Amino acid sequence: MFNFLHSIFGSDDTTGNYPDSLVKAAIERAVDGTDPWIRAVSGYKKKLRPAVIRAIDHVVALVDGIAPPIEVEFGGDNIDPRLHTFFISSADMRKILAADRTLADFKRKQAVALPRVVALLAMEKRENIILGAELSGDVVQHGVPQVTVSFETHHLFDPMPSEAETRRHLKRRAFDHLLALALRRITIVKEEREELEGYRALLQSKLNLLKRGNWGFDKTDGDEHLDAAGIEEKLGRIEAQLLEFGGDDRMLDVYLGIVTDVLSRPGQHLWASRETLIIDHMGIKRSRDNSDAPEVTLDLISNDEGLNLVVQLVAIIGDI
Question: Where are the domains of the chain?
Answer without folding.
Answer: 1-180+267-320, 181-266
